[in-house]
Amino acid sequence: FFFFKQKTAYEMLRSLVGSEMCIRDSLQGPCSIGPGMVVGQKLEETIRSFLDIQKESDNCKYSKKATKFYEGLAQRATEAQAVIDIFGFTFDQFGLMEMKTLNEQTGGYALLQESFTSPMFKESFKKLFETDENGDLRMGFAAKIQLLASKDILVHGAIGQCISLKSGGPQVSETVIGEGQTTQWYMGGLDRCSTLGFYFDLAQQTKEVTAGKVCYFQFKSTYKHSSGKIRLRVTTVARKFSDPNNIFDLVPGFDQEAACVLMARLGIFKANQEESIEVLKWLDRSLIRIVSKFADYKKDDPGSFRLSKEFNLYPQFMFHLRRGHFLQTFGVSPDESVYFRGTLCRENTTNSLVMIQPALLQYSLDDPTPIPVHLDIDSLKNNVILLLDTYFHVIIWHGDHIQKWKEQGYHNQPEYENLKLLLDAPQEDAKLIIEDRFPVPKLVITYPGEGLERLLKSRVNPSNTNANNMTVQSGNYITCLLYTSPSPRDS
């Protein structure tokens, strides 16, 4: 297994084909010289923003050339079966938008941190070298996946960290989604959370297929284990066609969590090609279409609206997806957007759902056991502690009363041991979350009126900003939202 410095590794790519080579590319600023430059050396030049990209301003003049250069490097890396990881240590952008193909097409990681010495990076870097019970690294290399399906199925493509091998064939659809025109993909590096989303359609001659007919999908995955052995995993899935005259046959088999993640990946694919507002309109239309078909309601009577348990969470998933930074570009830089989107397209369903709809837990003196609560401003109460997991951040928020008791030192007094236990409970749960996640999320402890409280308030639904509650009113909720807006130059 080889690790090289960036320049040496890229020069030796073609001579190390077949070796498990991983290039760790660490950057502390944007490239300002050579074919990969994304910004000039003059101080008056600034790196591109989404507004610059939209208006095709002079700040974008290096992007196309740099993107083409990095795509060429990515092609060389896949031919050499090398994996490229990108670590960025900077408060500003460094060019991840241009170089994203380096890690996305080779199966590598992209990691954004404020500093090389940050605890989050140190712990994340350690996790890269975790070993199993046999002392082997928990990663695979030179991974490929082949899809075999019944003749009734057409393959649109796959979305994730992969590249099409352009194998073609009669089952390849003319409509391309993600990496298409193939039934074989190269994934490069992988770990236990690596996933791909596959998109299918029915062949034209089987649109009116009879109910009960079975179709098959077989996935053949091969990769080189860190021990040096080639491993093959074959997964075969059988599914029955539903009655075309009764769409409710589809209901028992509908997985709303998987559907949400697949829609998120498809939305990201569209967002890379279209304006974000158009993607949001497409998402709204798709939600209206599916709800109109599967919901039970009376016209002009909102109170009669009902969805079965297989669909009842799907609308709220879509609500949080359209509010998040995966499809919208407001408040994030191009590099941050690429990082968030790339992470969602790599991770498994459970982790992706946490990114889309963060988990909010409540702790109180009445019940120290964590209770899931709504992601709503009304959940921010004076006498509770909240734990918000957004995947990239783990936020512990102390209500106004809890924070005042803590500042007065009540938790250090024996007669208030229950308060100490309450303060410790979310800390222990946060520790468990952090230990099991890569990259390691940033732990934030905040309270009403404190600056980092905006990380929590920007993720909850502002259903009631006029509540008679010090916790809600503190820091001005609207101001907290505006705090994350782009610089005045982008407005």
Strand content: 15-25%
Q: What Rg do the Cα atoms give? A: 25 Å
The count of strands amounts to 18
- Number of helical segments? 15
Distance between the termini: 48 Å
Class computed from helices, strands and strand pairing: alpha+beta
Q: What topology, given as strand order, has the largest sheet?
A: 7-8-5-10-11
Give the overall silhouette: globular
Helix % is 25-40%
Q: Please mark out the parts with pLDDT under 50 across 5 or more consecutive residues, or reply none.
A: 1-9, 15-19, 471-491
Summarize this structure as a short list of keywords or feature phrases.
491 residues, alpha+beta, 5-stranded mixed β-sheet, 15 helices, 18 strands, 32% helix, disordered C terminus
Write a concise synopsis of the structure shown:
The protein is an alpha+beta fold and 491 residues long. It has 15 helices and 18 strands.
What's the layout of helices and strands?
Layout: E1 2-4, H1 6-12, E2 21-27, H2 50-55, H3 63-79, E3 82-89, H4 96-104, E4 110-113, H5 119-128, E5 140-149, E6 153-160, E7 163-164, E8 184-190, E9 196-202, E10 214-225, E11 230-240, H6 256-271, H7 276-294, E12 296-298, E13 301-306, H8 314-323, H9 334-346, H10 349-356, E14 359-364, E15 371-372, E16 384-389, E17 393-398, H11 400-407, H12 417-435, E18 442-446, H13 454-457, H14 470-473, H15 477-482
Parallel strand pairs: 1-2, 2-3, 3-4, 17-18
Antiparallel strand pairs: 5-8, 5-10, 6-9, 7-8, 10-11, 12-13, 14-15, 14-16, 16-17
Helix pairs in contact: 3-4, 4-9, 6-7, 6-8, 6-10
